[in-house]
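Late entry, evening session. Most of the bench is empty. Finally got around to the prediction I had been postponing all week. Sequence below, unchanged from the version circulated by S.P.
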Amino acid sequence: VGTDHGYIPIYLIRQGVVKSAIAMDINEGPLSRAKENIRQYGLDRYIAVRHSDGVLALQQKEADSVVIAGMGGGLVIKILTEGREILSSVGELILQPQSEVERVRHFLYEEGYRIVAEDMVFEDGKFYPMMRVLHGAEQEVFPEIYFQYGKDLLVKNHTVLANYLKREEQTFLSIKKQLMNETKDERIRLRIEEIEKKLALVEEAKTEMMKHAV
């Protein structure tokens, strides 16, 4: 979903990970580029190209796995919501929201999905979290740090997440320092409280990771 240049389905076919794929995008421009790239690799027989708003052009039981990557968390939630019926027959979702990741995790938890694996990479100055999602509600009550930073990443004591937490802490401390130097009106006071809550979550996440350090 949102295949853009079609690189993910091309890679998966060439690596033998999947036997066939459907490359979908809402915009005609990216679809044209995807078609050309697929043609150049001689994969026309294996990759179908389809104009689609989210997964609406997908048929039930047509796919085992759906990749939704490279877009904001709000759009990921919109696609999952509008395609709920179609996605009910899909075995797994691979999601890579580029913003509002905690909102996506909350949505999945509340909608009866469970995240079974997470990873995070750092490239060109940006952090990219990703997750494998299955149908079936979680049986435990999650603390907020699981939504903010990912249960699997915390339990794995993931190195990239540790670096992300360092950057978060530095950013929040810098903001708090600036706010402390401003005139203390109600708006500033509430903003400082908000930053302190975020710092407390970072500290809680660091403590959780230390529990699982080898």
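Two things to note before I forget:
The longest helix spans residues 186-211.
The two ends are 38 Å apart (CA to CA).
Will write this up properly tomorrow.
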